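cron nightly-structures :: item 1 of 1
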Amino acid sequence: MSFASEPGPVAMAETEVAFAELDVDAPRVGIVMGSKSDLPAMESAEKELNERGIRCEVRVMSAHREPDKVADYAKNARLRGLRVIIAGAGLSAALPGVVAAHTDLPVIGVPLTSRTSVGGGLDALLSIVQMPPGVPVACVGIDNARNAAVLAARILSA
C-alpha cells in the first residue's frame, strides 16, 4: 500500500542529491591517537589543518584498551562526514591498522616515539607500514603529524 504523501524513488533521489550538495559543518579529517601522552606530537596535524581551513576532530582511543570504541569510530566515520583519518601511535602502533580494518576511508599513520620505543620509533614505523594486503595505511615520518595533515589536505583536494 502506498500513500500519496510518501515520496517516490525520484523524489528521494533528488533529496539525497540536495543533501549531498549541502556544506555541512562536519569535520572532514579525524585525528586519533592511542593515549593522551601522544597529544603533543599530534597537535601539529590539527594546527596545519586549521591553518588550511579544514575542519577536524581530535579523539583519544586505544586499539588495545578500547577496541570496540575504535571499531565503532572507524565504521561510522564516513556517516559523520569524515573523508580522511590520521592515526598516531607508538610502540606496536596498532591503531592505524585497526582503524583501516574498519573503514574504507584513507588512513594515514603517524609513527610516534615514546620513552620505551625501540630504535627511536622504528618499531612504530615498521608496524604501520607492514600492513597485510587489503588493509592499506599510508605512513609519514616518525613524529611527523604535520606531514600527515598536508597529505590529508592533498587527498581532500584530489
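cron nightly-structures :: done
Helices lie at 9-21, 39-51, 67-76, 95-101, 122-129, 145-157.
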